[in-house]
Amino acid sequence: MSVFVSKKVDMTSDATFTLYTVPSATTAIIKSILISNDDAEGQQHTINITITNSSNAVFSIAFGKLIEGAQGQSGEPVEILTNPLIAETGDIIKVAASSANKLHAILSAMEVTPRNVTT
To answer: What is the domain extent for residue 63?
Structure first.
Protein backbone atom coordinates (compact mmCIF):
# COMPACT_ATOMS: atom_id res chain seq x y z
CA MET A 1 0.00 0.00 0.00
CA SER A 2 1.22 3.52 -0.75
CA VAL A 3 0.18 6.84 0.78
CA PHE A 4 1.41 10.37 0.21
CA VAL A 5 2.50 12.41 3.23
CA SER A 6 3.48 15.99 3.85
CA LYS A 7 5.47 16.98 6.95
CA LYS A 8 6.11 20.56 7.99
CA VAL A 9 8.16 22.36 10.64
CA ASP A 10 8.54 26.02 11.59
CA MET A 11 12.05 26.36 12.97
CA THR A 12 11.19 28.55 15.96
CA SER A 13 14.72 28.31 17.38
CA ASP A 14 18.21 27.46 16.19
CA ALA A 15 17.78 23.96 17.69
CA THR A 16 17.58 20.78 15.63
CA PHE A 17 14.04 19.72 14.72
CA THR A 18 12.83 16.32 13.55
CA LEU A 19 11.05 16.84 10.25
CA TYR A 20 10.17 13.22 9.46
CA THR A 21 10.69 9.71 10.78
CA VAL A 22 10.00 6.76 8.49
CA PRO A 23 7.41 4.49 10.17
CA SER A 24 8.06 0.82 10.88
CA ALA A 25 7.71 -1.64 8.00
CA THR A 26 7.80 1.28 5.55
CA THR A 27 10.06 2.63 2.84
CA ALA A 28 9.68 6.31 1.99
CA ILE A 29 10.36 7.91 -1.36
CA ILE A 30 11.06 11.53 -0.47
CA LYS A 31 10.17 13.62 -3.48
CA SER A 32 10.81 17.09 -2.13
CA ILE A 33 12.29 19.05 0.75
CA LEU A 34 11.38 22.73 0.40
CA ILE A 35 12.86 25.42 2.63
CA SER A 36 11.32 28.87 2.71
CA ASN A 37 12.62 32.06 4.28
CA ASP A 38 9.95 34.18 5.98
CA ASP A 39 12.30 36.89 7.27
CA ALA A 40 10.52 40.20 6.51
CA GLU A 41 13.87 42.03 6.69
CA GLY A 42 15.17 40.03 3.74
CA GLN A 43 18.15 38.53 5.56
CA GLN A 44 19.85 35.35 4.39
CA HIS A 45 19.88 32.30 6.66
CA THR A 46 21.46 28.88 6.42
CA ILE A 47 20.11 25.42 7.07
CA ASN A 48 21.59 22.02 7.82
CA ILE A 49 19.63 18.88 6.92
CA THR A 50 20.66 15.37 7.95
CA ILE A 51 19.38 11.83 7.75
CA THR A 52 20.07 9.45 10.63
CA ASN A 53 19.79 5.74 9.93
CA SER A 54 18.73 2.91 12.24
CA SER A 55 22.38 2.47 13.37
CA ASN A 56 22.44 6.14 14.50
CA ALA A 57 24.89 7.09 11.75
CA VAL A 58 24.30 10.69 10.60
CA PHE A 59 24.63 11.72 6.94
CA SER A 60 24.44 15.26 5.59
CA ILE A 61 21.83 16.11 2.95
CA ALA A 62 22.60 19.83 3.03
CA PHE A 63 25.17 21.66 5.16
CA GLY A 64 25.21 25.44 5.45
CA LYS A 65 22.77 25.77 2.55
CA LEU A 66 22.04 29.48 2.02
CA ILE A 67 18.35 30.38 1.89
CA GLU A 68 17.80 33.83 0.39
CA GLY A 69 15.33 36.37 1.70
CA ALA A 70 13.59 39.24 -0.06
CA GLN A 71 13.08 42.65 1.54
CA GLY A 72 9.51 42.99 2.77
CA GLN A 73 8.42 39.55 1.58
CA SER A 74 9.27 35.89 1.84
CA GLY A 75 11.97 34.59 -0.48
CA GLU A 76 11.22 31.91 -3.06
CA PRO A 77 11.24 28.40 -1.56
CA VAL A 78 14.45 26.45 -2.19
CA GLU A 79 14.23 22.82 -3.29
CA ILE A 80 16.97 20.86 -1.52
CA LEU A 81 16.68 17.61 -3.48
CA THR A 82 17.63 17.24 -7.13
CA ASN A 83 16.45 13.60 -7.20
CA PRO A 84 14.12 11.55 -5.01
CA LEU A 85 15.66 10.23 -1.79
CA ILE A 86 14.90 6.72 -0.53
CA ALA A 87 14.61 6.40 3.25
CA GLU A 88 14.14 3.16 5.16
CA THR A 89 12.30 2.19 8.33
CA GLY A 90 13.51 4.27 11.27
CA ASP A 91 15.44 6.83 9.19
CA ILE A 92 15.05 10.34 10.61
CA ILE A 93 15.26 13.60 8.65
CA LYS A 94 16.35 16.51 10.86
CA VAL A 95 16.65 20.23 10.11
CA ALA A 96 18.51 23.03 11.91
CA ALA A 97 18.38 26.72 11.00
CA SER A 98 21.05 29.33 11.70
CA SER A 99 18.43 31.70 13.14
CA ALA A 100 15.17 31.32 15.05
CA ASN A 101 11.77 32.05 13.47
CA LYS A 102 13.13 32.61 9.96
CA LEU A 103 12.85 29.29 8.07
CA HIS A 104 10.15 26.73 7.34
CA ALA A 105 10.68 23.18 6.02
CA ILE A 106 8.17 21.11 4.04
CA LEU A 107 8.80 17.49 3.10
CA SER A 108 6.70 15.54 0.59
CA ALA A 109 7.01 11.77 0.40
CA MET A 110 5.30 8.58 -0.61
CA GLU A 111 5.27 5.87 2.05
CA VAL A 112 5.27 2.32 0.75
CA THR A 113 4.30 -0.58 2.99
CA PRO A 114 4.10 -4.26 2.06
CA ARG A 115 0.67 -5.67 1.31
CA ASN A 116 -0.79 -8.35 3.54
CA VAL A 117 -1.65 -11.28 1.31
CA THR A 118 -4.10 -13.85 2.59
CA THR A 119 -4.98 -17.10 0.90
So the answer is: 2-112
